[in-house]
Amino acid sequence: MTAANDSTDHPDPIRDPLAEVVARHRQNTSGDVATYIPERATVDADGFGAALVSVHGKVHRAGDADRPFTIQSVSKPFVYAMAVSELGLEEVHRHVGVEPSGEPFNAISLDPDTGRPDNPLINAGAIVTSALVDGSTANERFERVRTFLSACAGRELDLDVEVFASESANGDRNRALAHLARSSGALRRSVDDATEVYFRQCSVIVTTEDLAVMGATLANSGVNPLTKRQVMSERAATITLSIMATCGMYDHSGEWMARVGLPAKSGVGGGIVAVQPAQFGIGVHSPRLDSWGNSVRGSAVLQSLSQDFDLHLFDHPNEPRSPIVSWETDGGVTVGVLRGEFDLISAEAVIELMLEAVAGGSRTIRLDVTGVTRSRTGARHLFQVISRHLEARDIDIVVEGNLD
Ligand code: GLN
Prior knowledge:
Blueprint: H1 15-25, E1 32-33, E2 49-54, E3 59-63, E4 69-70, H2 75-87, H3 89-95, H4 123-130, H5 138-153, H6 161-169, H7 172-183, H8 191-202, E5 205-206, H9 208-219, H10 234-247, H11 253-259, E6 264-266, E7 271-276, E8 280-285, E9 288-289, H12 296-308, E10 324-330, E11 333-342, H13 344-359, E12 364-375, H14 377-391, E13 396-400
Parallel strand pairs: 11-12, 12-13
Antiparallel strand pairs: 1-9, 2-3, 2-8, 4-5, 6-7, 7-8, 10-11
Helix pairs in contact: 1-12, 2-3, 2-5, 2-10, 4-7, 4-8, 5-8, 6-8, 7-8, 13-14
């Protein structure tokens, strides 16, 4: 018997290429570890890991996937998701916008008319967003944030107290941003209170596996794929991914979306979370940063993965998937069998065939939709409009299974 027959020795078709991509970029030592706080300068610059978690809850790790580091700005989209989930987009939107600022993460990007920060992923916007979290003291609010981040990661996350102390002792620029946001009315709490929660949320300790689970929670419409808990509303997950796509990599976001094509968020700790909606989250970590403050090797890994596995969101086959398994007419009865996702383009194809069948003399159209795994509201609406129209002309429309 060869080793290949040993059940413990199967290749892992996801972990192996992930490990290969990490190995491919290991020699790249360009960039610098962030030194804006003394605490950061002490980290091991060589740590390098990646993890991928699917919406099925499968975990794949490569390199130093279990090495702890502080989450830093990767916390921002999640705290935003928490605020949107609890308060609704409109209320959150009164305090912080959704426009890319095109400026560095710590820039003074406040709307000249309203004073609102441009988006929740630059520091000014993140501080305003943390202040929207409910709770009577900074301590209580941070506990709620920590509990939420933990629910996204599927395990209890802790605070690095030394990093927090260092963030707080060296946080004058962030306090200045908070003062400006406060003076314009965007910041709901005192500067000290708001920045304390923000500094703490940046100092939460994670691993790449945690980031991957958190990303997979966004990919999975807000349901943590490991715990199966709905930790945020579906709408909050959608909006958060949109903002990550447009603002997640700061003033490098446009280039990132064009080249990598996945919503992502980086942090000065060297972590990046990236998401393939409906499929998986990826966490990467390597502390050396480029001039935008994004992990050099982390970005390189995600770019390679995107190319090697066609992950770009806007990459699509040039023929739309057909939902139609079979379509037959016999003696005035047309029978169609559908499967997979019933989306707008599927509805368009089905409606055309229905109208053709009627023009060809069919009086009954029977659709078997038992193989449809998901139907989109818009597609159902089109189908209902055409069904009602045909029924008014005495055509029998029979649907087997459920399109809802
Ligand atoms: N704690 C950092 C700061 O506020 C977070 C910034 C980041 O990760 N880009 O400056």
